[in-house]
């Protein structure tokens, strides 16, 4: 039963000349005074979402994007500031790019923010998809198998540090702690200081390709999943695969339980007007993400995602995204009706996340947050 609503902001600044015929992605370069505008936008969105009753503002972590697309490098630090500017909204990590961190530094930063925000930071982990950021931090991205292997060990370390008073770890990439003399004794275990106050720590991870290995890893560690901007045929398949993986690890879940379903969206009086408004940012988003293999609007996209292959930005159409329900465009009544259908289809699903494409102007995001809160969310109040 749908009762919870969140929103996602990936951290783009105000962009001009958006769309396939606009400025090429690799030609965009902004000075620092423009890039830091992202923080004012984040503060504004957090305050608006807080007042409108959204549960969580999810933010994306990324690095080195002088193009102005995703320019928030540290979500826990930003969350501490946002918690002091808002009353109740949570700040979600969507997602901490774990291979850009030492796992214990990420665990410490989250634990500190958990304390300072009184539990309003939601932890999330991802493997990353930008070679520029992951490889620059000295870890693999081009080698997908090495990236996954490293990520899985890092997450295991983070979870041990959260859940155990003291722990040790010996793996392929990390030996924690090193066996060294310390103040007269040999070091055998280590304690994360501080540890999160709010236990157990809720951990979220994106489901991007729906691989059996990825879902099994999530189920084994009790990690919850986010499926966003994905054609509904894959949503259906991955919801069932996640449920089956949980069952293999001794957890019986209703279909959709422990999952978030996300959409990109534009509300207007007609579908045609909504799509017209959304098209420039849709095309900009496709222009950015297609070469990274991150679109999931159809069968050909899903195959490319699984193989980590580049996609064609021009092959992605907003019409396809709307038809496959990765995008919701049209009157609010139509969106309510579709979400009611989703609710019937997935009885365990509680949480819906709405988002906008890279390049969506700030005023447009605020207007859409407001309309969704006033015209859609009340239909799901219990």
Descriptive notes:
By secondary structure, the protein is of the alpha/beta class. It has helices at about 30-35, 35-50, 75-85, 105-115, 130-135, 145-165, 210-220, 230-250, 270-290, 300-305, 320-325, 330-345, 360-375, and strands spanning about 5-10, 55-60, 90-95, 95, 120-125, 170, 175, 180, 185, 205, 225-230, 260-265, 325-330, 350-355. It has one domain (about 5-265, about 345-380): Luciferase-like domain (TIM Barrel), CATH 3.20.20.30. It has an 8-stranded parallel beta barrel with strand order 1-2-3-5-10-11-12-14, surrounded by 6 helices. Helix 2 (about 35-50) packs parallel to helix 13 (about 360-375), helix 4 packs across helix 6 (about 145-165) and helix 7 (about 210-220) packs across helix 8 (about 230-250). The longest helix is centred in the middle third of the chain and has 20 residues, at about 145-165.
């Amino acid at each position: 039963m749908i009762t919870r609503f969140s929103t996602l902001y990936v951290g783009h600044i105000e962009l001009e000349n958006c769309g396939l015929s606009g400025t090429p992605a690799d030609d965009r370069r902004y000075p620092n005074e423009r890039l830091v505008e992202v923080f004012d936008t984040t503060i504004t969105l957090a305050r608006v979402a807080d007042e409108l009753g959204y549960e969580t503002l999810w933010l994306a972590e990324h690095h080195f994007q002088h193009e102005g697309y995703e320019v928030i490098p540290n979500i826990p630090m930003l969350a501490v500031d946002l918690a002091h500017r808002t009353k109740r909204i949570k700040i979600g990590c969507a997602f901490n790019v774990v291979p850009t961190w030492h796992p214990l530094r990420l665990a410490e930063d989250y634990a500190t923010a958990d304390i300072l925000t009184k539990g309003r930071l939601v932890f999330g982990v991802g493997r990353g998809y930008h070679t520029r950021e992951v490889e620059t931090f000295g870890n693999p991205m081009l080698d997908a198998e090495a990236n996954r292997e490293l990520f899985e060990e890092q997450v295991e370390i983070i979870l041990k540090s959260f859940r155990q008073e003291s722990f040790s770890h010996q793996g392929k990439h990390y030996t924690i702690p090193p066996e060294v003399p310390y103040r007269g004794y040999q070091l055998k275990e280590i304690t994360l200081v501080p540890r999160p106050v709010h236990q157990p720590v809720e951990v979220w991870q994106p489901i991007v390709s729906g691989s059996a290995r990825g879902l099994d890893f999530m189920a084994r560690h009790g990690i919850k999943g986010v499926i966003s901007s994905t054609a509904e045929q894959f949503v259906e398949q991955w919801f069932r695969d996640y449920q089956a993986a949980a069952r293999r690890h001794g957890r019986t879940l209703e279909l959709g339980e422990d999952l978030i379903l996300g959409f990109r969206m534009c509300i207007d009086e007609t579908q045609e007007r909504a799509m017209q408004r959304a098209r420039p940012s849709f095309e900009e988003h496709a222009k950015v993400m297609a070469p990274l293999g991150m679109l999931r609007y159809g069968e050909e996209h899903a195959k490319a995602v699984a193989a980590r292959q580049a996609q064609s930005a021009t092959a992605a159409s907003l019409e396809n995204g709307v038809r496959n329900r990765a995008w919701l465009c049209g009157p609010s009544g139509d969106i309510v009706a579709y979400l009611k259908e989703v609710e019937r289809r997935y009885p365990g699903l509680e949480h819906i996340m709405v988002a906008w494409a890279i390049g969506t102007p700030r005023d447009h995001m605020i207007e859409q947050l407001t309309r969704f809160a006033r015209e859609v969310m009340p239909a799901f109040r219990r």
